[in-house]
Amino acid sequence: MGENQPLLDNPSGLPLAPQCARGIGCMRCVTGKHENSRKRVFMRRASIAIVLACIYWFVFDPMHRRGIVSRGHGHSNDFCRDHLVEWDGPSEIVTSSTNLGINITRGNIAGSVKVLTADVTEPTITVHAQVSWNVDKSRGGDYQHGLHMKVIDTRGHMSLTLGTDQDRIIDGHGKRFCGRYEIQVLLPKSFSHFGHLVVEGVVMELDASDLSKITFESAQFVSVTGNIKVSDLLQTKGLAVDVISGSASFERVTSPTGSSLDVRVNAVAGSVDLNAEVPVIDSDNDQSTPGHKVVISTTSGDIDLVLRPAASAFGKVRKNQTPGDIHLSAISTAGRVSTKVELVENQALFLDGSSVAGVIDAVVSDRFVGDIKLSNTMGSVSVKEAENSSTIIDYTSNKRNYREGKKHLKDGGQEGKSGSISLSSVVGRVNLSFD
Asked: What parts of the sequence cross the membrane (predicted)?
């Protein structure tokens, strides 16, 4: 076949383009629309190079990738925290104040706070932090890698605030700041009393231990993301805890002898595990609050609560003292609610427990006398009386899913203070046992 002769499958008989290397089957030759082959190859290769550059820029470039991951995953970004440097800010603060507040504010930073006793003469706070590498020099020498600490110490109150920048610039690429911190609150071992302790953090793990010899006026712990754990005796006249995403556990909480116990714990997406002891109350000092109050609530977590008398309540109660009535509320939307309450003589219990989708198990001292009401919309309720009990329950309603009655002495003798128990669930079972 001669040059520029019609192809076998080229019925049009049009000649091939002079630079065509594709030969038979080149439809551009057939239609007469063939472009310069070198130009097409160049454009194809340039397009591939641009695509590869974009892939490297957005995926493999470490600076840019850390910025995207930071913005996309916020506080859970572990990739960013793999490339940190030591923070050069203050590392130790000593104070004579006996009221202390720690506040971890905005920013992509996570860490832990530990509260414990140590061989120090005054309350001491140690701070260790690691932060994103900073090559942006526009802020000057005082710009300490995006992490900022503010301390206010006046009139016996000290507050420490730790915060970060929301966004920073590194080598011309947008990148969100991230960091990690460790804070220790060291209280002198010689202390027997401390004022108000407040610890709040956006992303924080809190652990308090070795505090059994110190009595706090109040303690407040708040964590948006992270667990709160007290692994020793905590003596405080008031305890308030809020956790959004995390659990709260307390090995042993009590108030000083003579003061009523006041505890409130709320967890949205975590569980609550609390062991508490109630002491006797000095009636002269606590006329406005004649009882102990414990309020526990969760949205999707479980509640495990044990409430028992403190050692002082087992002895002989003086005339100006009272065991104090117990007002207990344990409410969970989707979790299990488990409570165990021990009572001493002449102590009333007012228990309110509820759950929408969880099981309710309540074990109460057989010393309890008073009203009982158990209800379940779609399940069953059960009551188990103690063996050889001196009390009896008279029911006004005794159905599979609803029981209501009154627990009192069999022989009609002198009863202790009367209380009430109300337990309800929509889907889960409701169980009440006397022990």
From this structure: 42-60
